[in-house]
């Protein structure tokens, strides 16, 4: 077992969109990210004390990791934590595809170890989970987690790792006001009882919960998120209005409150950061106090919206 405990931050920094090609119709957001802009994001994050960066080999098929590695060269390796993933659906044909993908990630990121390495999707838990054990023993991976696994798969992965003296040290699933399947399936309670940090991704539903978008001002056409969310923006208005009003009372904005909700639920939100002012939003999110009434009202409005934002890659929990 690794002797150092995983340092769980209040918020983790997502870099999925850093793998975007920047071409409309060929990427996630249809945005163009510059090296200088991302360095400014990193500098603000560093100054604010946000240290865990989450990426994956399949985000832009290496582009996200490579850009992140270049940007983080400006800091000492001990100043930040790297979280990346093995994705079974992209496994190679070598004798050990997990070790092979890890080596690609290490090269992309310009490091010799990963702080938190994930099995990205369950696929075949008995097949892939044991492959983490030699990586932990080698020191190339310090801690391991599972992403998009249901409760029985999390327990199975933990049992497999436990036989070698290790354990599942983190769980990462889609979790937002609009998509609370991990809570409904008992995964949040399990993690709390076992002392396992739960990382929540898509907390802002790719911008749909920021209050920035409406039927009159939809998400950018030609992007995947426009296709996924523009049709439901009208149903989200009461919820985003409430997020904005709670924020206004605390000198904050709707996305800050959505992130604060995830923190209040005992999770670590992974928030995508592509612009420097997003870091200021995360600082505000950490200082927001939500009452139990606030949380109940937000969840009731989310339920009333009656939308399903489960991703195509996700299984039912």
TrEMBL record:
One of its GO terms (cellular component) is cytosol. GO terms for molecular function: oxidoreductase activity. SUPFAM superfamilies: NAD(P)-linked oxidoreductase. InterPro entries: AKR, AKR_Detox_Biosynth, NAD(P)_OxRdtase_dom_sf, NADP_OxRdtase_dom. Residues 12-302 form the NADP-dependent oxidoreductase domain. Pfam families: Aldo_ket_red. Keywords: Oxidoreductase. PANTHER family: NAD(P)-LINKED OXIDOREDUCTASE SUPERFAMILY PROTEIN, NADH-SPECIFIC METHYLGLYOXAL REDUCTASE-RELATED. This is Aldo/keto reductase.
């Amino acid at each position: 077992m690794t002797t150092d405990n995983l340092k769980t931050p209040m918020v983790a920094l997502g870099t999925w969109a850093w793998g975007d090609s920047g071409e409309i119709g060929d990427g996630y957001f249809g945005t163009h990210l510059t090296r200088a802009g991302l360095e400014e994001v990193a500098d603000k994050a560093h100054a604010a004390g946000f240290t865990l960066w989450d990426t994956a080999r399949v985000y832009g098929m290496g582009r996200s990791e490579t850009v992140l590695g270049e940007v983080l060269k400006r800091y000492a390796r001990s100043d930040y934590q790297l979280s990346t993933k093995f994705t079974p659906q992209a496994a190679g044909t070598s004798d050990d595809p997990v070790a092979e993908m890890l080596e690609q990630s290490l090269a992309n990121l310009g490091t010799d170890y990963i702080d938190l390495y994930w099995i990205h999707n369950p696929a075949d838990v008995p097949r892939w989970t044991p492959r983490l054990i030699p990586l932990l023993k080698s020191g190339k991976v310090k801690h391991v987690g599972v992403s998009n696994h249901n409760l029985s798969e999390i327990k199975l992965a933990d049992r497999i790792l436990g036989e070698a003296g290790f354990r599942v040290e983190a769980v990462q699933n889609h979790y937002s006001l609009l998509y609370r399947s991990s809570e409904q399936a008992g995964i949040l309670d399990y993690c709390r009882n076992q002392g396992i940090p739960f990382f929540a991704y898509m907390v802002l539903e790719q911008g749909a919960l920021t209050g920035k978008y409406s039927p009159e001002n939809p998400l950018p056409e030609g992007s995947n998120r426009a296709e996924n969310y523009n049709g439901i923006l009208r149903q989200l208005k009461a919820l985003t209005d409430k997020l904005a009003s709670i924020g206004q009372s605390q000198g904050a904005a709707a996305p800050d409150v959505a992130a604060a909700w995830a923190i209040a639920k005992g999770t670590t939100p992974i928030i995508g950061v592509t612009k420097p002012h997003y870091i200021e939003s995360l600082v505000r999110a950490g200082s927001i106090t939500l009452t139990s009434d606030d949380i109940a009202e937000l969840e009731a409005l989310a339920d009333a919206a009656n939308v399903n934002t489960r991703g195509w890659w996700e299984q039912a929990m």
